[in-house]
Every structure is written in C-alpha cells, then in structure tokens.
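Exam revision sheet. Question 4 asks you to relate a sequence to its structure. Input first:
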Amino acid sequence: MPARILIAEDHPPSLELMRYLLGAHGYPTLSASNGREALDLARQERPDLIICDLQMPDVDGYGVVRELKQDDDLRGVPLLAVTAFSMLGDREDALRAGFDGYFSKPIEPENFVAAIEQFLPAALRASRNNGG
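Answer key, structure tokens:
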C-alpha cells in the first residue's frame, strides 16, 4: 500500500497541484488549509509523510513541526517544508527546526514526486507497489 500523505497548504492552486501530482502517482492524500487543521489531521489519521507550507494561518509551519516532533506517535513521520518565500538561510533554518526536507515554490512538477519519494521507505513508494 502506498504512503498516505498529508499536505498542509493554504494556497489552493499549490494544494491542488500537489494533490494532483501525488494522486496521479498512486498516493492517497489528506489536506489541511491551516496549521491547526494539519495538526489535528496528523493526530487523527497518522499519515506516512507530511508536506507543510511554512506560511499558514493559525499555526505556521514552524509551529507544526515543533508540535509534531514533540509527539511520540508522530515524531518519526517525515515532515517536508515548502515555501514561496525562500530566502538565503531559510533551508537551513527549516532543517534546524526539525523538518526533514525543504522545497521552494513553485514546485517542479516533473521532479516533485520523485523528490518526495526519497523521504519514504521503499515499501511505501507507489512506484514499487505498482510494479514500477
């Protein structure tokens, strides 16, 4: 069974693009439009990977990573930061805060899923499960 991926993104076009790309590659997705909703969904649904925008209402991405890395049940879930406001040092700040990976927007559709899959165990990769 391929990984279930939670996407926390408050920009609808970005959310839809990520959902489309992941879905087209066989990944079921969950979505949240703010940080509080992302935390609640993560605790309820236990996704296999979380993609999180850094700039969101209610709780920003740094608040999300801080809470999830303190949760015994979720601290091992790969957490990937995405942001449109990429500045020098932001990648390092995000990784230091506890994110496992960092992506700048706009995402590159040709490479997005392959980049995400690097953070998943082989058994949860859709391409492996689809015979690819």
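Marking note for examiners. Residues 79 and 109 are 19 Å apart (CA to CA).
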